[in-house]
Amino acid sequence: MSDLIAIIGGTGLCDWQGAEHISSEPIETPYGEASAPLRRMRYQGSEFVFLPRHGDGHKFPPHKINYRANIWGLKSLGISQVIAVNAVGGIHPDCGTGALVVPDQIIDYSYGREHTFYDGSDGRLDHVDLGEPYSMALRRRILAAGQSEGVALVDGGVYACTQGPRLETAAEIQRLKRDGADLVGMTAMPEAGLAREAGLDYASLCLVVNPAAGLSSEPITMDDIQKVIDSGMQTVKQVLATAVSA
Ligand code: HPA
Question: Is the pTM of this model over 0.90?
């Protein structure tokens, strides 16, 4: 699997419907089990490794995901490049519902998650540089895939990672906006930090599934979010199939 790009699917991409299943590898790590077996798949002629972040049937909420096992598992199979898919709320006007965004920065508001491989248990310690949390080369690859598929992608944006699973208050979103956030989600961290600690190239493709709290006169409902996911994830899959084959 080592020459393949791995895709970590998020909400709305727990199973990759329409993909041909090639093989499956259960993953046990020093940190416990990954969210699901790692699956080698083929979609529209492109091969990749797929890991549903929330597990099969979306059983792990964002704060209960074993991010360390997921990243360790990918690394242990020799994977060196990871594209994450994240469903997010939109804050910046360019990040309206249905928009696809390739973020370039993260602010971490999550807490209480196992967030590092350097937890002091084995005497190893490194302070990795996370100034640029996403790999520029992988970001360019996704952006080029969007261009060749005729799909508009927003190039850059600050992803605010909240704890969840509840959505935010309107005042919290105003605070995130003042902090410079363009998107809000619950899963970019500690995933991106762990990927850097493990030496993996990592980038994300975000689907905006709702206006963030207080930015629309309508309440946020799971029904409305599901409708955006149903159409948007098809486009996400198409862009990623091209990105992983490039
Ligand atoms: N907030 C946090 N996470 C999310 C949202 C949101 O509005 N939408 C999808 N994931």
Answer: yes
The second-level CATH assignment, the architecture, of 6-118+129-245 is 3-Layer(aba) Sandwich (3.40)
The ipTM value here is 0.99
- Residue 161 CB partners (closer than 8 Å, separation 6+): 106, 107, 108, 109, 110, 184, 185, 186, 187, 188, 189
Residue 225 Cα to ligand 1 middle (Å):
10
Calculate how far, in angstroms, residue 22's C-alpha sits from the geometric centre of ligand 1: 32
185 pocket-lining for ligand 1 (C-beta < 6 Å): yes
CA of 184 to the centre of ligand 1 (A): 6
- Identify which of 168, 8, 9, 185 has the alpha carbon closest to the alpha carbon of residue 106: 185
Q: Which two tokens stand for residue 64?
A: 């209960």
